[in-house]
Amino acid sequence: MKKSILFMAVATIVFLTLNSCSKDDAPGGTYTIQYKLVGSPGVVISNAVYATDGTGGMETRSNIGSQNFETDVFTFANDGYPSMSCNATGPNNNSTLKAQIFKNGKLLKESTATGEILVISVSGAGSN
To answer: Domain locations in the chain?
Structure first.
């Protein structure tokens, strides 16, 4: 009886350990990326440039004209590298703009700019 309980405990630990490794970190796997820009009140986002596949594909959005912006969701290969750059203007020196990268729906990286002229970039390794 003790041997079967010990065996079940060891088997459970091994199973949980093996399944805790992320499947999207496997070679040849993919993950999703979405970019978001969040401005404080009065911020106007002008332009944004961002990677759409992590291997050289880029998209440019001009004349966004809003306080917040989010992209579609893109699929990246595990060796892809997400990145985004943006510029905006704010009403005063306390204005802020956050650039965020979400991987599989979870915040991966964030960068914040402060001032009237807001220039920001954020990038993140694909397998983090």
So the answer is: 25-123
